[in-house]
Amino acid sequence: MDVLLWKDIDKLGKRGEVVNVKRGFARNYLIPRKLASVPTAENLKSLEYGKRREGKHQVELRAQAATIAQKLGKVQVTLEVAANEEGVLFGAVSPQMVAEALKPLGYTVEPGMVEIPGGGSIKELGVYTVDVRLAPEVSAPVRVWVVEAGEPKKKSDEAAKA
């Protein structure tokens, strides 16, 4: 039985393709879940309309992501973490930590959008450039300063005692 796919399905086909499947698979699984339908002229026209509308929406999202990326590219984030004398962290700076540090600055970023070069985590003190992928073709570099926790507080505490 030929069916028109409304969504991408692994090992079967992509959205908009007409594929041949067994009748039971189509009637019991694909069609009830609205993953596919019978390929009529009306359904094909509806699918093309949906693709055009989605394409326009994607262009708008990319434009919004580009403006956010320009602003985000100027952002610097400081993370205070515990480290030993050699500058090696007790643990690591993860994408989750970077995403949480961006929230107070007004940027809502999911941890999956943060790409840390060199293995996915930062394990030493220093300054790093992390990519934040806002859209498939749009990313912004964010500078992350990893400093030892308590270091500035000790200096301010000593100044307060004097």
Strand and helix layout:
Elements: E1 2-5, E2 18-20, H1 23-30, E3 36-37, H2 41-72, E4 76-81, E5 88-93, H3 95-102, E6 114-115, E7 122-124, E8 126-135, E9 138-148, H4 151-161
Parallel strand pairs: 4-9
Antiparallel strand pairs: 1-2, 1-3, 5-7, 6-8, 8-9
Task: Give an overview in words.
- With 162 residues, the protein is α+β, with helices and mostly antiparallel strands.
- Helices cover 36% and strands 29% of the residues.
- The chain has 4 helices and 9 strands, in the order ββαβαββαββββα.
- The strands form 3 sheets. The protein has a 4-stranded mixed beta sheet with strand order 4-9-8-6. A 3-stranded antiparallel beta sheet has the order 2-1-3, with no helix packed on it. The protein has a two-stranded antiparallel sheet with strand order 5-7.
- Strand 8 and strand 9 form a beta hairpin.
- The chain starts with a strand and ends with a helix.
